[in-house]
């Protein structure tokens, strides 16, 4: 079943281009620069006047929600609130009949996410689930479902479920923008074209595995890692750190690069590997100056950036090239790199990659 791969996680990492194709299939209407989500069955008129989206999820799916906020606010221009399901359900959230509650869950069985969705719908919100499992509890207990087509995910550490969630959120952003009249056809076409380039860009990043082997050799014994990103890549810094913690048992922290000077910079010395997500985008210059701050304190830099970015290559101890792609899809492509970093380090350490200690694939208890 592992089809020659050493672990399910590695197989699932490599499957991502095909599963993104599956998730986009039939949903992009190129001739109309629109997205077909008729399967979701939410009333278009209601959606056009929705006042706020509340995205709720746990773990990796929560990081997808954070990326979703960037996508939806910038593309559809509607306010998005993001919360951890386990926090949302125990505060007094502001939810009205004009709120769309989007619950993101691979399994559709996560207890906190189910309870948060129930709470939001009880307060009058409409519920949309982004879910990978047909007939799951979440899919049954909501108003509409947008399925990711990741296929069964066996590895406890989520990989292809995450990137297909991001693809679904990209589709949702364009769909909302078109329904609300906040996104014109020309702009929509640009975003849809970008989404269609994801599989090829992922294939490209999957062809060069040498940097990951080197990272494992050089830093496999490190006690702690820092992951830095800004803007739409900040959540990928969080996700990269979570992946490393889960499967290699190395402490890792994800940080918004601009926050470094407010505390975590104190941690940096020649022992500290710092993974920096720095492809060219609207915050590239800012990220680069944060990276210089790390360099000045002799931190070890693992940089993920554009293939032809010689300046970044020069600053990095280890460089992971990624193809130049539109900012909105950078999280999908960069995810593959952070997954591979975690996988190679865990494999180097010889941990049980697919079944890490203390973790279960779906968390059905509070
Ligand atoms: O099935 P869900 O998407 O609701 O699961 C949420 C989290 O439990 C899950 O993403 C968890 O954080 C993974 N182990 C991450 O790799």
From TrEMBL:
Reactions mediated catalytically: D-fructose 6-phosphate + L-glutamine = D-glucosamine 6-phosphate + L-glutamate
One function term, GO molecular function aspect: glutamine-fructose-6-phosphate transaminase (isomerizing) activity
Record's keyword annotation contains Repeat: yes
GO biological process: amino sugar biosynthetic process; carbohydrate metabolic process; fructose 6-phosphate metabolic process; protein N-linked glycosylation; UDP-N-acetylglucosamine metabolic process
Ranges where the SIS domain occurs: 43-182, 215-356
Keyword terms of this UniProt record: Aminotransferase, Cytoplasm, Glutamine amidotransferase, Repeat, Transferase
Residues the record marks as active site: 361 (for fru-6p isomerization activity)
Domain of life assignment: Bacteria
Entry EC number(s): 2.6.1.16
Compartments (UniProt record): Cytoplasm
One Gene Ontology cellular component: cytosol
Biological role stated in the UniProt entry: Catalyzes the first step in hexosamine metabolism, converting fructose-6P into glucosamine-6P using glutamine as a nitrogen source.
Subunit comment: Homodimer.
Name of the protein in its database record: Glutamine--fructose-6-phosphate aminotransferase [isomerizing]
Species whose genome carries this gene: Microvenator marinus
Residue numbers of the full-length protein present here: 244 to 609 of 609
């Amino acid at each position: 079943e592992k089809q020659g791969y050493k672990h399910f996680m590695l197989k699932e990492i490599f499957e991502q281009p095909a599963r993104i194709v599956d998730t986009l299939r039939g949903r992009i209407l190129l001739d109309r620069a629109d997205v077909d989500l008729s399967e979701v069955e939410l009333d278009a008129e209601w959606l056009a006047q929705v006042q706020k989206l509340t995205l709720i999820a746990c773990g990796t799916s929560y990081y997808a929600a954070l990326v979703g906020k960037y996508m939806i606010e910038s593309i559809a221009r509607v306010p998005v609130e993001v919360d951890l399901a386990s926090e949302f359900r125990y505060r007094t959230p502001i939810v009205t009949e004009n709120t769309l509650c989007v619950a993101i869950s691979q399994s559709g069985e996560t207890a906190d996410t189910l309870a948060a969705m129930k709470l939001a719908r009880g307060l009058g919100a409409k519920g949309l689930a982004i879910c990978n499992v047909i007939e799951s509890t979440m899919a049954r207990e909501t108003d509409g479902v947008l399925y990711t087509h990741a296929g069964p995910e066996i590895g406890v550490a989520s990989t292809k479920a995450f990137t297909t969630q991001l693809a679904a959120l990209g589709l949702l952003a364009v769909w909302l923008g078109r329904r609300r009249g906040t996104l014109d056809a020309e702009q929509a076409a640009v975003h849809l074209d970008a989404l269609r380039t994801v599989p090829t860009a992922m294939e490209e990043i999957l062809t060069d595995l040498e940097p990951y082997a080197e990272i494992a050799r050089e830093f496999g014994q490190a006690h702690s890692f820092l992951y830095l990103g800004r803007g739409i890549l900040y959540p990928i810094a969080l996700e990269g750190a979570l992946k490393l913690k889960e499967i290699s048992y190395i402490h890792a922290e994800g940080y918004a690069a601009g926050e470094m000077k407010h505390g975590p910079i104190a941690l940096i010395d020649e022992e500290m590997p710092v993974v920096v997500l720095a492809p060219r985008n609207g915050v590239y210059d800012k990220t680069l100056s944060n990276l210089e701050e790390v360099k000045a304190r002799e931190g070890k830099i693992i940089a993920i950036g554009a293939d032809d970015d010689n300046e970044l290559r020069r600053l990095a101890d280890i460089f992971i090239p990624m193809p130049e792609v539109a900012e909105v899809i950078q999280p999908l492509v960069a995810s593959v790199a952070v997954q591979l970093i975690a996988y190679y380090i865990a494999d180097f350490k010889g941990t049980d990659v697919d079944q890490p200690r203390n973790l279960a694939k779906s968390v059905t208890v509070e």
